[in-house]
# Entry
Amino acid sequence: MLFPYTCLIHPDARDRLRFLETLENSSFNAYHDAISNPGQWYHVRVNTLKASPKSMLGILRQNHPGWLFATDASISEAIKVNVSGPNEIQGLANKIEVDKFAAESIAMSAPLFAPGFMRAMNKFASGEMVSMVTRFTTSWDGQQHEVHCGNGQAMYPSNAMYKIGKGVAVATSQSWFSSPPVQDWDEFKDGLLVDQNLPSMLAAKVLDPREGDVVVDVCCGAGGKTTHLAQLMKNTGTIKAIDRSSKKIQRLQERAARMGITCVQPVTTRSERMKHVLEPIKADKVLIDPPCSALGLRLKFYIDESARDLDNYRANQERIWDNVMNAGFVVPGTRLVYCTCTITVEENEKLIERVIEKHGLKIVDPSINPGHPGIAVETLSRKEISQMIRFYPHLDDTIGFFIAVLEKE
# Structure
């Protein structure tokens, strides 16, 4: 049984992506094919507080000879590792159901962690081989689907699987694609590197944090970009890392501790509460990475966002911008970076067009400009559009991503 499986996409999302047909060497079908697989490369970021990229490249090649490692021309601390596949796998008699997010990771050879387990579809003993599947119904046509994402060894019997709250439930041994098990490597455990998409690294680079800066990272999540900012600041200054999720803040703290980072001050709060919980500060730099429709991520089994869902993302992004600008830490000269892992014009250029109008901001040159320029919108000049950065899954072999660099006038 051979991959590829083709991602299913809501008609409303298809409609928002029609602009892909107008780009050079681009088409919706090419995008569709790209998000249905993980791409050729998996990226890691060297923790330059502990190691140099050159030395880490040598260490990785020596310690993991089964993988191909290469540097990246645009970001010195990035190392890419090959992804292989698609592989041929067969379904097994024992089956368990997993959620969509777990399934997409398993298809790239990740283990099944306990939170992704949904139910055992038959009885099996600990140590037996099981197939992992995800089931879903597409909202736009009511069709039911089942996707086989991988096989592995059950770490618990079927009647106990639902009781475990954390850790590995199934050790994946067969998957559609093989990506490097970075989080199992000693280099990761010792804080020498982290796994991170290349465009996400660029977002921190173009913010251009300097030693001693005061930085606010809004919607910091588990701290991938936060810890990169700390590296670029050489672990000096202050980074206020804000997220509403206490679980994500905990993961950030664990990551920072592993990497030897001490300049991050995590804050668990909603964006509308920032002005009440942060002491008065003037930020040199601000990173805004809000929740988005994630239409640039890959590999994906289905995209079920309706027009209403997509509009809600857009409204929430504008609300977060309003909360940032009302919190008091953005002052004339503050540099801001807005980024998303989606490619809709509504959540990117049109959103930037709106916040410039509302908040007295200007687009500035990011100085590093790989990828592609922005998409033209009504009130932004050709120069402003050219200073935005876009990555496309089908044109750049990365995730889809958007970056805009702004400054308070």
